[in-house]
Design goal:
Elements: H1 5-23, E1 33-35, E2 39-42, E3 48-56, H2 60-65, E4 67-75, E5 80-87, E6 89-92, H3 102-108, E7 111-115, E8 119-121, E9 131-139, E10 143-148, E11 151-154, E12 157-160, E13 170-173, E14 186-197, E15 205-212, E16 215-220, E17 223-227, H4 229-232, E18 237-244
Parallel strand pairs: 3-5, 6-10
Antiparallel strand pairs: 1-3, 2-3, 4-5, 4-9, 6-7, 7-8, 10-18, 11-12, 13-14, 14-15, 14-18, 15-16, 16-17
């Protein structure tokens, strides 16, 4: 089957997670997301909010790839609702003309979380027309996977966003992206990337670059070639993998 690269990636991570739970003597049914009871918290100016926390059952895989997001939605005239939930992939909106780099996309923080076997939880601003929303990161994973949202929907249907987006071998996640109480910044280094070749949404070709020692290798079907860092830092990248320093 033909699959979108990040969609297949999430499927693969979930399958490995389930296999690790089986090896540990736990059942596959436990491989899902654990949900805590909803409770209330008191914030600034004594304002209360409903809090619901979801977390993945721990495995060696989640220890590496799983982080947590803090989503605060305030419907007009209603009590705020806070959802703390796990993520494997942070999907960043790059459609705005003000976004020229991965750092810009993180600051905009229009984040989608992709969970399960390709299912989406959409958290775009237009989904809450009468609400205010804030998305922050509660905890960052050891390997941070960023998907640049290169496939979007417009008046003419689905389209590919081919805007050039800068990224580098080093990435710093500042406290502006972190939830209240998290002040420490995190530094990451690039270890892999995926690029989609083609102009159409329903067709194209994928290649992947991966760091091997001090060298970079490009995987193109059966072909594996050594490439320069300049070739890796292609501004058309689709998925980026960063390892925490």
């Amino acid at each position: 089957r033909q699959e979108d690269a990040p969609e297949f990636l999430c499927f693969l991570l979930n399958q490995i997670h389930e296999e690790l739970l089986k090896l540990d003597g736990r059942t596959v049914s436990e491989a899902g997301v654990a949900v805590d009871d909803e409770w209330e918290t008191v914030g600034p100016k004594n304002r209360t909010a409903r809090v619901r926390t979801c977390s993945r059952i721990w495995s060696p895989l989640t220890d590496i790839f799983c982080g947590q997001l803090y989503n605060n939605v305030k419907p007009k005239g209603s009590k705020a609702s806070i959802q703390v939930e796990p993520f494997y992939v942070l999907t960043l909106d790059i459609s705005s003309g003000t976004v020229h780099s991965v750092e810009d996309a993180l600051k905009v923080c229009q984040v989608l979380t992709r969970e399960g076997m390709g299912r989406y939880r959409l958290l775009l601003y237009f989904a809450f027309q009468d609400s205010s929303r804030g998305t922050k990161v509660v905890s960052l994973p050891k390997v941070l996977i960023l998907q640049l949202l290169r496939f979007g929907y417009g008046n003419s249907g689905t389209r590919k966003v081919s805007r050039a987006i800068d990224f580098s071998e080093q990435l710093t996640v500042g406290k502006e992206l972190l939830s209240p109480g998290n002040e420490a910044t995190s530094r990451y280094e690039l270890i892999a990337s995926i690029m989609h070749h083609g102009k159409d949404v329903t067709s194209g070709h994928y290649t992947a670059d991966a760091k091997y020692g001090d060298s970079w290798l490009r995987f193109d079907d059966r072909m594996v070639d050594k490439v320069s860092v300049d070739m890796v830092l292609n501004k058309q990248a689709y998925v980026l993998f960063y390892r925490k320093l």
